SCP2 sterol-binding domain-containing protein (Gordonia polyisoprenivorans), 371 residues
Amino acid sequence: MLGPTDEFPIHQLPQPIAWPGSSDRNFYDRSYFNAHDRTGEIFLITGIGYYPNLGVKDAFVLISRGGAHTAVHLSDAIDDDRLNQHVGNYRVEVSEPLRSLRIVLDETGGISADLTFTGLFDALQEMPHVMRTGRRITLDAQRFAQLGTWRGQLVIDGEEITVDPATWLGSRDRSWGIRPVGEAEPAGRPADPPFEGMWWNYIPMAFDDFALVLIVQENPDGFRTLNDCSRVWKDGRVEQLGWPRVTAHYRSGTRIPTGASIEMTDSAGGTVTLEVRSLLATPLHVGGGYGGDPDWTHGLWKGEGFTERVTYDLADPAVAGRIPFGMIDHVGTATCREADGTTREGWGLFEHGALGRHDPSGFADWLSVAP
């Protein structure tokens, strides 16, 4: 099963590149992108994934705008030409590795896009992310993130939207490894102890002088299982910021945050604070395929050449009732205050999930909400 990449000296195992090193059915290789302006009126989230042990590749586009939440889904049988990333009418062209790429969606269900991402800062390698259920590894992934600008155009039902890099920006990440994908596996013996939930924050933000990427994951009792916060400066220097202390501000009667206050420690021991505000919330598990989405699952075999468009009304009680039980991506803006009092304004992603019990937040179970 040779492919074009086998011509290059990039192998890590004595087998073709198309064969993953792990036989785990959940092996994946995926890209995620988001794009937004600074008004909080529109948010585009998109991605493409390859699942070689399932024989599937797929892509999605989510657009939140004016109360409408529209998804385009594409899926097909996997191929072995990973240098030509495409699923149906969707493709990703890497113009300059780790710096610039282009995403094209030819007209599909009234939606089309031609968008070019240009990195403002170097890509940042994140810490490995590992989770277990009992004795089994359910998540073992490596990821890098990058902040940048977007240019091009987006067409929604005949309306053309100009994407100007002076005002449009966003983040992207590439991740690969093992995570639950495709059809659900037989459960086997129930987990002991059972899964009671997790608390998650992922915040990549672009400022004039640096990009900041924060990841915090906690168990129900507040024990931190992932703690990673760094910023990359214009000159490529990477600075770790110590032990972020995150306080999420929830809308009363919900688990949906309006923002967060974060304190960190810089390399000199000073306190850096970040005040994050949500401008537009987009649930990833409503048409995006993340976190138990009943409508779209990454890696699920849908047949050859599958394409669909789905539009959701987030005010519909049947849809609104799903929102608290998954990850929500927000168009975010933030004020960063340095230890010396210098302040900078930034823009980017504020991703948050408060799933199940989380003692520090006062959530006693899956259904409790903020006072």
About this structure: The CA atoms of residues 32 and 47 lie 4 Å apart. The chain has a mean pLDDT of 95.
